[in-house]
Design brief:
Rossmann fold; alpha/beta; globular
Length: 146
């Protein structure tokens, strides 16, 4: 089973899920989480841009190739909305995954319930912690709910 981990990059939630789910045989993928690498990939590969808009445009499109391919290859998509920043890209990933019919798990705190109600409505599960995601993966793999 392949799980794509999308969303905020400022905490270690991905590592928590990957470590706790190691025994399940689940494979994980995710976005490039280093800001500079992700933001500058387009100009590093396709050439420099004087205008920041076109700089960002190249990076966004290149990252979209990577992200769409990874979501298309995933069985389950987990999207984490963090506390500190607005993750517009995470909302887009959730919408893309839902449109592709992917099993979608959304993770966020209770303070985001209203703002993310449409995203939550598209999800098959809405949770607050990495541990809950792992329990869902355990259930999907084994059929045992703990």
């Amino acid at each position: 089973m392949m799980v794509y981990l999308s969303g905020e990059i400022h905490t270690d939630w991905r590592a928590e899920i990957e470590a706790a789910a190691e025994a399940l045989g689940v494979k994980f993928s995710g976005p490039v989480t280093d800001h500079a690498t992700s933001d500058d990939a387009g100009v590093r590969i396709m050439g420099p841009e004087d205008n920041k808009f076109w700089h960002d445009h190249k990076g966004a499109k290149l990252n979209a190739i990577r992200t769409r391919n990874a979501i298309d290859s995933a069985d389950i998509v987990v999207v984490r909305f963090g506390e500190k920043y607005k993750q517009w890209n995470a909302a887009f990933d959730a919408g893309y995954a839902a449109a592709k019919g992917k099993a979608l798990i959304v993770m966020h705190g209770s303070d985001h319930q209203h703002a993310l109600k449409e995203v939550d409505a598209a999800a098959l599960a809405v949770v607050e912690t990495p541990q809950q995601v792992v329990k869902i993966l355990q259930y999907v793999v084994s059929g045992v709910a703990e």
